[in-house]
Structures are given as C-alpha cells and as structure tokens.
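Why predict the complex rather than its parts? Because the way molecules touch one another can change local conformation, and only a joint prediction can capture that. The input here totals 444 residues.
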Amino acid sequence: MDTEAVEKVVRMPSVKRLPGYLCILRRFQMQGRELVSTTHLAEEIGLAPIVVRKDLEITGITGKPKVGYPVPELIEGIENFLGWNNATDAFLAGVGCLGSALMGYQGIRNNGLNIVAGFDNDPAKIGSTVHGRSILPLKKLPDLVRRMHVRIGILTVPADAAEEVAQMMISAGIKGIWNFTTVDLKTGPDIVVQKEDLSSGLAALSVKLKRAKEKKEEETES
Amino acid sequence: MDTEAVEKVVRMPSVKRLPGYLCILRRFQMQGRELVSTTHLAEEIGLAPIVVRKDLEITGITGKPKVGYPVPELIEGIENFLGWNNATDAFLAGVGCLGSALMGYQGIRNNGLNIVAGFDNDPAKIGSTVHGRSILPLKKLPDLVRRMHVRIGILTVPADAAEEVAQMMISAGIKGIWNFTTVDLKTGPDIVVQKEDLSSGLAALSVKLKRAKEKKEEETES
DNA sequence: TAGATTGTTAATCGATTAACAATC
DNA sequence: TAGATTGTTAATCGATTAACAATC
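Output of the joint prediction:
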C-alpha cells in the first residue's frame, strides 16, 4: 500500500547528464558564483533549458523563480544523488593500456571512485606501481575484496578472460562491475553491470559523418 | 518530390549496437559458422531477439525465414553501413594517459579508424613514438591535416585547451571530432562532434548500485 | 510593478516491444 | 508437412519538448 511514498521515477538519460552539470557547477563555484539559472547551465552544456530543469528535478534540489538555484546546494544535491560525496573504493583488473589510463584518469577520482589497486597476471607488471597504486597478482583479488569490503570492480582484461575474472570478482563479494570488455557478462540479478563501449561512440561518429557528407554532396548537385 | 527515395530512418540506438553484433559475428566467422539467427545473436549479446532484428534492418541485409542471416554478408553489411570497410585516417591531439591508451587500443583499429599520428605540446613527448606512431608538435597539426586530407580528429587534451585545439582542427579541415574532454565544443553546423563521457557511465553505475542496495535493505526489513 | 525563472502538467516524439502473416 | 524464423505493421512505453500558472 503506497500510502506516503511518492513513486520516484529515475530516468537514466537524466542520471547520465548529471556529471556534466556537476563539472560546470564546480567551475562556477571556484569562480565564486553563488546562483545559477537553468538557462545559463543549458547554454554552458549545450542543451535546452527545459532539459536541464527536468534533469535537476531528480536530485530533489529546488530553485527560486527569477533567482535560480544555489550553486553549492546544487553541487551537494547532485553528489548526494549519485553517492559521490564519499569516494567508494574500487579494484581494477587488467592493467593494459586502457586499465593504466583509467588508474591515472583524474576524472574518476573527482567522481566518487577511488581505485585502490590494480590486478594483473603479467609477472612484469606485478610489484610495480601505476600512478601511485600497486599492481598485485590477480589471484590475490578475491581475498583482498573480502578483507577490504570492496564493492566495485573495473574490468579491463582481454575479452577471453572477462567472464572468468568477473566471476572471480562476484564470488568474492563485488556488487558492481564497470565492464570495459566487449563481453556480455552472465551475472545474477543482484549484480549491477555497467558496460562501457568505445566502439559504439565511434559507430555514431561514423554514421553522422557519412550522413553529413551525403547531405553536402546533395547540395552540391543541386 | 520524393518519387523513388524511401525515407530511411536511422535510429542512433540501433547504430550504437551494431559494433557489438559485428564483434560477435567476426568470432562466429572465425569459428566457421555460415548462418546465424537473431535468436542466437540476441542470446550472445544479451538483448531480445526483436531488438536485434530491428537493428539489423537498418543495414539493408535480409535473412531467410527459418534459416537466418548469412554471417559473411551480415559482417560486410554492417561494415558498409558504418563505413568501416576502409579504415579512415585520424589524428589524435593530447597524448596523455587516455590519449596513449587510445593510440594502442586494438578495438579502434578493428573498427575502421587508423590513428596515424599523435600531437602534443610537451617537448618530452615530441619525437617519441607511442604504439608505433610518432608524436609530433601540436602546431604542425593543421598543415598535416591539409596535406594528408585527414577528416577525423580525436580530442584528448586537457579541458582548458579543448576549444582552442578543436578550432585548430576545424580550421584545417577536420570534419568530425571524437571529443573525450568535458567541454561542450562550439562548432558550426557542418562539423560532427561525438562526445565521449566516462563519468556518465560511472553515474549510471553509481545510481544502479544505490538502488540495488536500497532494494536489498527493504527486503531485509520485511 | 514587470519580467525572468521555476515547478508541473500535458502534448509530442521516438524507441522498444508485441503481434502476426509470409515463407523456407 | 510442421515449426522456426523473417519482415512488417501496430501498440506500448518512456523520454523529450511545450505550455503555463505560480512567484520571487
């Protein structure tokens, strides 16, 4: 019986746009701005004001008509909503090109995720550090997940190892996997997987370029 | 007057899923499979069969009832549709962690994009090679874009340099920018920009994890 | 006060999903 | 033949966009 609880709908497209607002708002805060309107935010991020207003709605932060939203409150509201106010520890498996880059990527650190160690099978990598974090043998991952209560795993291993390493993570207690492999992981219903796929962005770019080219050729003809 | 031309609608969500099918199909081809049904493809990629059928529709490749689709034809059809049958040359600006990773990322090479050189302002990097490709001074980019007729630029520079470097690319003739910075680039209508944003994926993961946790706590209570 | 901006409800648009005849 | 699978049309769902009263 839904007496009190208002059915809160969380639209994923809105969630995915929140980090963009957060980035801009942090810059505004450094510049000493205290208030911001959706009109202004929209201009900065390249979206329509109505989109911004709808997106901010999900955080529960309200603004004042004619005035706008208070910048610090909005930042806190977004961080709270995303659970980024306290950084969450994460392990990364597969310290190749992409894995190393992620370990050094500033954007991740600013966004609520703290990669505490990297894991790999390559003896040449084990024992070294990447951006200040140790690289440990992959087989030590389960034990450390248990001891440190790590809940997030970043998967940057080769495709043929993806399923195995993911299962290793899950068995040890990992609840969320940020999956950079091309593999569709078979997991239980209580495990959250976020698949990241660079090639889909490239596909979008390719098709948009192709269409732009065709359009231009049509114009040239006529 | 649209006498002949059938209005072909290209849904971006479908476009973005095509590389996933392509990856699986290439594996099937190596395994010697000649035919594939949408049911089977759907199972591999973790989507519903109807989604796969709708997605493949945009490539123009048709299957045979009861039989399925011919694997080689489907591969060629997707590659053609995406323009990935001939690799396109690209320049990358900003050889930091992420830029270096992209230069070495096998997935890009397999997907119609050939990063021919990297560009940076750091004297320590200039003259070196990353994954076999030279790193050149950023100021040489415009001239080389013109001489080599490069149409795609990959932007992995720091945020505060993004707008300037993008303008440099565009002035020289770059038509499409794969933008890995957090900046919303101001470009003309004939320039295609594909923005890639890791933090939006992280936001989605965070919110999904949070909801899973809340759901579990509710169950424990009752 | 006047006008910009919010919050909210309704309308439109597009993507996903369902249904089903055609067919190998 | 029977049944699985395609291709296509229709129905549903959800996201975006528009409209507008409330208000600082």
